[in-house]
């Protein structure tokens, strides 16, 4: 199949709690599609509530891929995602099924849009030497602070004392962020796929209110119990998955380091900050078709998403 004949593969992006999953499911129902998750937390088994995985009812029969792949103490890299997602895209398109990418992990999205070879990327020796010098002089803590500054999402999944992984993460993140700012210089757009990025955004006050409500819903649906069960299974705050927002705060509560009320407020605050960082990533992607959601009422928001869905369907069909 030539590139001209290949279908447009939609990528749905946007901050947490905005409605990406709902939109992707409705899009799949109208286009004989299946969803490939681009969420670095939904890859973990045993973690359903805090990662906002769609329930079976919410999926409405639409198959979801790259969810529930590994256990909370296992590691999964962006290179793993890139390889598995591209393979799944090839399988689905060969079956005349539309792959729909949906998720909020910026680096995952970039690994699809651009020909980023994580396994073979040559080391920038000058950067490596600089980072190793920082480690020798100031230790892994200084390196970890630098990683948090440029890619806090990745930093959540690396132990602060693992200086070798921290250095590699800084290298990859630096390579990625440079390419985002000037992708024609360091990153090459993929030529063998027709990706089209659709983004959702919302007034910050409305979005933050949605985030606070979602956290309350998660807690009412058993997030506290989910975290407690993970601790009972032997996982702890050093497990890669449990460094995520919603889990680390409740672990601090279970360890007696803060009150339950403080943990809840921290989850809300950290989720709001996470949403802000997501938008910083997404605003660097060129040629995104952005759609604004203006309603804070769930029923009205669903109607807005339906209108957006219809517009995307028309664009996918070249109308």
UniProtKB/TrEMBL annotation:
EC class of the enzyme, as a word: transferase
Family from the record: Belongs to the IPP transferase family.
Catalytic activity reported: adenosine(37) in tRNA + dimethylallyl diphosphate = N(6)-dimethylallyladenosine(37) in tRNA + diphosphate
Source organism of this protein record: Tindallia magadiensis
Source taxonomy: Bacteria, Bacillati, Bacillota, Clostridia, Peptostreptococcales
Residues the record lists as binding substrate: 16-21
Any Pfam family: IPPT
Binding partners and assembly: Monomer.
Keyword terms: ATP-binding, Magnesium, Nucleotide-binding, Transferase, tRNA processing
Chain intervals for the UniProt region annotation (Interaction with substrate tRNA): 39-42
Keyword Nucleotide-binding: yes
Enzyme nomenclature, EC number: 2.5.1.75
Function, as annotated: Catalyzes the transfer of a dimethylallyl group onto the adenine at position 37 in tRNAs that read codons beginning with uridine, leading to the formation of N6-(dimethylallyl)adenosine (i(6)A).
Protein name as annotated: tRNA dimethylallyltransferase
Molecular function GO terms recorded: ATP binding; tRNA dimethylallyltransferase activity
Superkingdom of origin: Bacteria
Cofactor names: Mg(2+)
Gene: miaA
InterPro entries: Dimethylallyltransferase (IPR039657), IPT (IPR018022), P-loop_NTPase (IPR027417)
Sites annotated Interaction with substrate tRNA: 105, 128
GO biological process, one term: tRNA modification
């Amino acid at each position: 199949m030539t590139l001209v004949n290949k279908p447009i593969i939609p990528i749905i992006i946007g901050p947490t709690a905005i409605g990406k999953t709902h939109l992707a499911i409705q899009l799949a129902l109208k286009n004989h599609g299946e969803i490939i998750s681009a969420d670095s937390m939904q890859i973990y088994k045993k973690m359903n509530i805090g990662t906002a995985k769609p329930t079976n009812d919410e999926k409405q029969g639409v198959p979801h891929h790259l969810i529930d792949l590994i256990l909370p103490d296992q590691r999964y890299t962006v290179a793993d995602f890139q390889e598995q997602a591209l393979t799944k895209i090839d399988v689905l398109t060969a079956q005349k099924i539309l792959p729909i990418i949906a998720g909020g992990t910026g680096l995952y999205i970039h690994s699809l849009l651009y020909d980023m070879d994580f396994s073979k990327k040559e080391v920038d020796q000058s950067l490596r030497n600089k980072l190793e010098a920082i480690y020798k002089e100031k230790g892994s803590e200084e390196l970890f602070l630098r990683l948090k500054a440029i890619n806090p999402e990745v930093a959540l999944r690396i132990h602060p004392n693992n200086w070798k992984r921290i250095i590699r993460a800084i290298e990859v993140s630096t390579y990625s962020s440079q390419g985002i700012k000037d992708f024609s210089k360091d990153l090459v757009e993929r030529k063998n796929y027709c990706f089209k990025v659709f983004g959702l955004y919302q007034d910050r006050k409305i979005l933050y209110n949605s985030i606070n409500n979602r956290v309350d819903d998660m807690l009412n649906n058993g997030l506290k119990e989910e975290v407690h069960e993970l601790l009972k299974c032997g996982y702890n705050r050093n497990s890669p998955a449990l460094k995520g927002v919603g889990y680390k705060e409740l672990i601090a509560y279970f360890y007696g380091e803060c009150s339950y009320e403080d943990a809840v407020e921290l989850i809300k605050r950290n989720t709001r900050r996470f949403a802000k960082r997501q938008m910083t990533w997404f605003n660097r992607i060129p040629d995104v078709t952005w759609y604004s959601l203006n309603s804070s009422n769930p029923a009205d928001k669903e109607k807005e998403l339906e209108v957006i869905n219809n517009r995307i369907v028309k664009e996918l069909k070249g109308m």
